[in-house]
Design goal:
Largest sheet: 2 strands, antiparallel
Order of helices and strands: HHHEE
Number of helices: 3
Radius of gyration: 14 Å
CATH architecture of the largest domain: Irregular
CATH topology of the largest domain: High-Potential Iron-Sulfur Protein, Chain A
Bound molecules: iron/sulfur cluster
Length: 104
């Protein structure tokens, strides 16, 4: 069971108390390590310029987590949660192969 499903299951089991916890979870979420298995699988790097361009030809200069539709950090914050990594915090200047440009 992945962590997102586990979290949803926990939320369902625990009810409203978890809603308050969910906010704290996002703010206090651990920082994603580049060596995290999921990070390695998707080629996450904390600095987009270090993306493995040979392995991920979809990378284009200028792409960063802060302009990705999955990024949940506040504007100007150095990092923010990414749901693809169970809500762990990714660097605003980071990148991974799941990058999808934010609309607008
Ligand atoms: Fe960054 Fe988007 Fe990858 Fe999340 S999915 S790590 S926000 S590029």
């Amino acid at each position: 069971m992945n962590s997102r499903r586990r979290f949803i299951r926990l939320a369902a089991l625990s009810g409203a108390g978890v809603l308050a916890t969910a906010g704290a979870f996002a703010a206090d979420a651990p920082v994603l390590d580049e060596k995290d298995p999921q990070a390695l699988a998707l080629g996450y790097v904390a600095y987009a310029a270090r993306a493995n361009k040979a392995k991920y030809p979809n990378y284009a200069a200028g792409q960063t987590c802060s302009s990705c539709q999955f990024y949940q950090g506040k504007a100007g914050a150095p990092m923010g949660p990414c749901p693809l990594y169970g809500g762990k915090q990714v660097a605003a200047k980071g990148w991974c192969s799941a990058y999808a440009k934010k609309a607008g």
